[in-house]
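Quick one, probably user error.
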């Protein structure tokens, strides 16, 4: 994770002009434009089966890792690149996933220890719509945590009735909270299932073309 993030920062330095950002605009950058270390903290234990509502913590594009108020984060500043939706078997970055949430995506974080049947059920849910992404989340206090912009739901299984309610209220263009609800959740960073960082090497060309 640290090595890949260092690669991202190096690439960002090249395409900053293309996306209209300066290192000094990143809230975690010091006066020299360097990124400070971030204390991630542990994911919180949530009330199971209850859709939680969070305040909007902003949506600025930044060049450094973000100290989010919650983990998995439900809004906030994020990288200029979003995470391609799909089912991942490797962890993804909070900062790219939050950008996907901004587009109206639902992010299904699952404990790395869930069984194969649970993973298959999650993968089937991801296949239903192009605005769903899923990935293992180390330290998660529940088997499954669904997150949308300003909304979050912890469940023991995808069979919980609250899951369908969450999808009906938060997915894609239906979302009333996501700042860019319905914008594409593809053609950016990551190739499911095993390569969530694919595309960082081409970040400069991506931003020049978009």
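Nope, works fine. Designed sequence:
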């Amino acid at each position: 994770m640290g090595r890949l993030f260092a690669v991202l920062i190096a690439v960002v330095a090249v395409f900053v002009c293309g996306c209209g950002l300066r290192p000094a605009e990143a809230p975690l950058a010091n006066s020299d434009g360097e990124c400070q270390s971030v204390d991630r903290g542990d994911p919180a234990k949530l009330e199971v089966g209850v859709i939680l509502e969070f305040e909007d913590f902003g949506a600025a594009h930044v060049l450094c890792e973000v100290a989010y108020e919650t983990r998995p984060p439900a809004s906030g500043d994020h990288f200029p690149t979003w995470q391609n939706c799909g089912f991942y078997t490797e962890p993804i970055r909070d900062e790219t996933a939050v950008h996907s949430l901004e587009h109206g995506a639902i992010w299904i974080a699952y404990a790395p220890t869930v069984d194969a049947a649970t993973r298959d059920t999650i993968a089937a849910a991801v296949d239903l719509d192009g605005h769903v992404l899923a990935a293992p989340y180390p330290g998660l206090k529940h088997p499954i945590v669904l997150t949308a912009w300003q909304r979050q739901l912890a469940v023991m299984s995808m069979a919980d009735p609250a899951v369908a309610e969450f999808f009906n209220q938060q997915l894609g263009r239906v979302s009333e909270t996501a700042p860019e609800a319905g914008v594409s959740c593809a053609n950016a960073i990551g190739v499911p299932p095993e390569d969530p960082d694919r595309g960082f090497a081409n970040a400069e060309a991506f931003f020049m073309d978009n």
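The helical segments are 2-19, 94-102, 116-127, 161-170, 203-209.
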